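Re: the request from the purification team.
They wanted to know what the chain is likely to look like in 3D before they choose a buffer screen. I agreed to run a prediction and write the result into the notebook, where they can find it.
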Amino acid sequence: MRLRSTAGANPLFAEATVHPASDAEAPAQGGLALLDRSDDRVDPLVTAAFDADDPYVAKVRKVRAKLLATAREASGADGRLRLAILSLQGGDEASILAANLATVMAQMDGPTIVVDADIDRPSLDRLLRLPNRIGLAEQLGGMALRLPVLQTAIDRLWLMPAGQAAGGAATLVEKGSLAEAAEGWNLPDANLLAFLAERPRGGTAFGNMLEKFDAVVVVARRGVTPVAEIRRVIDDLDRHRIPIAGSVVS
């Protein structure tokens, strides 16, 4: 996993070099609430829930630090943040990154809600081992009788699952800004991390969906994600003035 600036700067993940962690990258003081390795309430792929010293988790903290720095530089964001992971054929790596980033945010930044906005191919419910009976699709469609936000086994982390894609519900997520929609949901005071993925038909309106978000990281897969699609999405985000922290290439 490598994080690149969309402006063409050197990768932020210098695999052969180790630098002391800054305050933004270091684990929270006073110890982290980690799960025992035998705890089966969370998939082992969510490494940050079990081992704060794992090299992969250190890379996830760098993604978090870059997102926070971008958000603060772009808009002076302070307090609760609205961040996003955007997958362009990023495969399992993208959803695993989202689950680990949400965990790191809960550990370091306080209460965090991660929203699985990939209604076509839900994944975060499996990684966080929670049911996906109702979720974002039902919330957007006005069919949720209660707010579908579930407490995970990870301290201070909640999940809004994707919900069911029946009846064209997957198209609802492209109708407008998720941040604006969330303002009307009476959510708990928490950071918001959205996980989005390119829809099977392509041409997903990410800029429209991510308006009013503080920063986004794009996840692509080397040799799989077309360069033209990456450029289209970056141009779309730029038109909507959504700050791009960089791209993760797996």
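For the purification team: Confidence is low (pLDDT under 50) at residues 5-30.
Please add any questions underneath this entry.
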